[in-house]
Amino acid sequence: MARVVVVSPPFHSHAQPMAVLAGSLARAGAEAYLACGRPFAPLARAAGARFVPLTVTRNANTGVARSTVQGDREAARLEEFLAATREGAVAALLAQARHRREDMLSDPELVLAEMRALHERLAPDWYVVDQLSYPVTLALHCLGLPFATFCPGHPTYLPHGPEALFGVPYAWPSVIRPEDGELAELRRAARATDRAFTQEFARVARRHAPEREAPGRAFALASRRAVVFNYPPFPWLPEREGPGPRHVYGGHCVVREPRSPDDGWEETLDALRARARHVVLVALGTFLSARDDVLDVVVRGILSQVPDAAVVVAAGEGVESLAHLAGPRVRVARTVPQRRLLRHVDAMVHHGGNNSFTECVAAGVPALVLPFSSDQFSIAHDAERARVGVCLDPARLTEAGAGAAVRHLLQERPRGLGRWAAALSGRGPDWAARQLLCAMRERAGGTVPARAPARPAGEHAWALRTGSPEAGQGPRTPDRSETGCEERP
């Protein structure tokens, strides 16, 4: 039996899918642990995995970012980021670029010491590391320990070529088109961050592992054995050809949650259904729930434009400021059991976070996507192209626009939903765990920078594969990196 430690940063949106994967690894026969901050131990237990405490960053988000206890610097960066989202897409991405070093690589040598101590204590056969936990990946590289990479966001979070920059969307949704000057500024900031991370990786590696191969480009450092993408295998995603790790597109990290008889949600939904034909879930994630102004616009728009719809809204710390919306057709809650509710709602409004997007696709629920930051613009683009939802710009949102978009989703179900929900029905965390165990048995090695074949000068690094099928034609055929295991989806 393989002993596997799944290492997650202390953010609920990361720890939740990684706990699910750890549970799936346990069901597949591994002795699986979730290593994360202590508040996340219940996630491991619920998933059927063991738990070991580990601190890999000073940042944290246990479910509602603003109410999570953290340092003054971390809280200040969060407020600066939220303010930037009010200015628009590029302003938010530039704020994230300014914060990236402190947020993602604040103390790599301390993390190295923590990982060394964890390995001495548990001696696992291999690890699964969140791709955004850069100091953990660097530590495993320096220690020469085998691991797989789990990509919690859009697949292009792992750069697919030399021109691709972390923090610059590979594609934009139709309603958000930054000016050329804004894009040039964003690329300059992303390139500077890329250089800074790479230089810091090289410094730490020279000091602590001079005998090992240099880590190379920091944002491209990943497992040479297997990379699991928590994402559908859309045919237009940038190619990752040539030799390298096995790429496993798990599709989603959704498991069926049992009914909780004490939380009252089934009764709440029944009451809303008694007053309205449709129920719409509105949730902007654990960070962006702080944008209660946007939540207010969305709920008011649905109430005015869709008279036969009721709304459940996850308001985070904005419960009190949105309390005036509560009524026979509106339930305002601090948090909601999103994956469970998706089995009972007719549409969702979300921010384009990877979990919300993949959970909606797996459940066959159409979505209005309001992207604010990070990889959400790339995901919103994919939602449009896959015809599983529509997108609006949250910086220019109006009640009329939000209500009309939700009405359209309810009246004309997007054509790609059934096709992609069926395509993902054979995938998911249990399938990904089996593929991952197979890959780790078969392949040897530690880390290798992700590289793409050389392209002709001037060609975009995100150029689409020639002849790729258009949206709605089903998933691409699994590439060589997904074959060879005991089963296929």
Largest sheet: 7 strands, parallel
The CATH topology of the largest domain: Rossmann fold
Q: Which percent range describes the beta-strand content? A: 5-15%
Helix content: 40-55%
Report low-confidence residues grouped into runs of 5 or more: 61-69, 451-484
Let me know the number of strands.
Answer: 15
Q: Order of strands in the sheet with the most strands? A: 3-2-1-4-5-7-8
Q: Compute the number of helices.
A: 16
Q: CATH homologous superfamily of the largest domain?
A: Glycogen Phosphorylase B
Assigned CATH class of the largest domain: Alpha Beta
| C-alpha Rg (nearest Å) | 22 Å
Mean pLDDT: 87
In angstroms, what separates the terminal alpha carbons? 24 Å
CATH 2nd-level architecture of the largest domain:
3-Layer(aba) Sandwich
List keywords for this structure.
2 domains, 6-stranded parallel beta sheet, 7-stranded parallel beta sheet, alpha/beta, Rossmann fold, 16 helices, 15 strands
Account of the 3D structure:
Helix 6 packs parallel to helix 7. This protein has a seven-stranded parallel β-sheet with strand order 3-2-1-4-5-7-8, sandwiched between helices. The protein has a six-stranded parallel β-sheet with strand order 11-10-9-12-13-14, with helices on both faces. It has 489 residues and is an alpha/beta fold. The chain folds into two domains: 306 residues, Rossmann fold (3-Layer(aba) Sandwich), CATH 3.40.50.2000; 159 residues, Glycogen Phosphorylase B (Rossmann fold, 3-Layer(aba) Sandwich). It is 40% helix and 13% strand. It is globular, with a radius of gyration of 22 Å. It is built from 16 helices and 15 strands. About 9% of the residues have low confidence.
